[in-house]
Amino acid sequence: MVHRSLGQSTPELASGFLPPPPSPCSACHLGEREDIEEAAKLRAPALEPRGLFAVRMSRRRSGSCCGASLRAAFLTLTVALSTVLGNCSVDVSSSNELFASSSSSTAFSRPARAEQLLVSSSLTTERTRRIPLMSVEQELDAARAAIQRSARRRRRVDPGRGGGNVTTADTWFDAGVEHALVASVYRNPAAFHRSYREMEKRFKVYVYEEGEPPILHAGPCKNIYTIEGRFIEQLELMAPPQGGRRGGGARSGVRTSDPARAHAFFLPFSVSKMVQFAYRPNTYDTTPLRAIVADYVRVVASRHPYWNRSAGADHFMLSCHDWGPEASRGHPELHANGIRALCNANTSEGFRPGQDVSVPEINLYTGDMPRQLLAPAPPLASRPFLAFFAGGRHGHARDLLLRHWKGRDPDVFPVYEHSHGQKDGPLDYYTSMRRARFCLCPSGYEVASPRVVEAMYAECVPVILSNGYALPFADVLQWEAFSVAVPVADIPRLREVLERIPAPEVERLQRGVRLVKRHFMLHQPPERLDMFHMIMHSVWLRRLNLRLDR
Hints:
Elements (H helix, E strand, L loop, with lengths): L10 H5 L16 H11 L22 H20 L7 H12 L9 H18 L5 H20 L15 H4 L4 H7 L3 H14 L2 E3 L18 H12 L26 E3 L4 H8 L8 H17 L2 H5 L4 E5 L4 H5 L3 H6 L1 E4 L14 E2 L12 H4 L10 E7 L4 H10 L9 E3 L11 H6 L1 E7 L8 H7 L3 E5 L18 E3 L7 H6 L3 H14 L14 H14 L6
């Protein structure tokens, strides 16, 4: 495997801080009080600016270690002053003579006040440029505090008084949406709004550059694993902000070229591509996948200090392949400590909702959104089907659904196997979704189903038929406000369960689908609150180690 190498900077430059000054010897402390008092006498009472460095002149001979340190400091200030005043040619010999004469006297002649101001401005500007205002952990602390303040204000609101702080003044978040709907769909609207704004303002991700396509820095964009490829592609295409400018969300991007300023680190490998190029068909042997993951983590850990600093706790991967969780086992620290963004978010197979990220799954056959789903969705009155499903017989939930409901009532409760949507099928697949009030979303061999996202595009209420599925963006969204969950064991009673939901409740659920639809949309380039940024927000919350519950 060929790897792109990165130049490793010194720790001082990587962190943005100047190295500490050398410690003086013990003899230099003897006259410290005299030096401070002398510097105080030379200080202009009201006009000297903040940040001006006062040189403490000692009465000792220049042969002492203190005299040597002062000599170096004086030469440094001479060079800086000459540069600021435009004198590019510095006479070091004359500086030596000046230093020698001043060191033997009891005091030195102050430079002109204007020269002091110039030196102060130059040195202070240089330190401000090189020293970051806030460390990464300080930024995370500030974001937590701001979000928790918003959450507390939300909890103090009396729902009977019109919602109060339920919504915000930002038109991009809740303009034209009724307060009660926003309050029912989001766990804490004010806290989510503040968290998202803090993410736009602060969150930065560093993408490791080691490795080459197709297994690294690339992924599929035209099949059921589309999200994996689109996420890697969109993050790779984001140009880091120039000149250290921070914030901006969709405007400047979340990616940074400075790993010392990153809050999270992305491992840009594609498990789907590993399966395509390294897996031997029909062997069900995932050893090559685990070996690639282990090798990549070892490479970045040996070239950068960031993995070993946190044991991988601030690193994340993303996979929509069924074997994504299995591939993560290739490195014990990645599996135990890392943030795994997975479509196969099965809690019965080790998915941890508080640490891992559930990613929506969608099948884009051409790489683009189906044109039928981009048209305005019809109202409930124009939807003759109670529910709809068409798909293959793989997995226990699908097999049970097809055995009980296939072909029993195609006029009201159409359930088809495979043939639906083909040229000889009765109706177009997406058209049928737009004609149904509920869209059935059973698990396959794994828990996730692309029908959940397709149902939202069609503004059809998704019916989750799964056990152990950790639903996407559940940190923020209350899925019961726009979907129906039915245990797999209740599939034989499925029609009865759906028919008992009153019409006003179905309308409320559809309004919820219409509101959250934007969080499951794909855009190129990414837009505010779309699927890319919601995945990023889920990673952001895990770096904050914060919940947005009521």
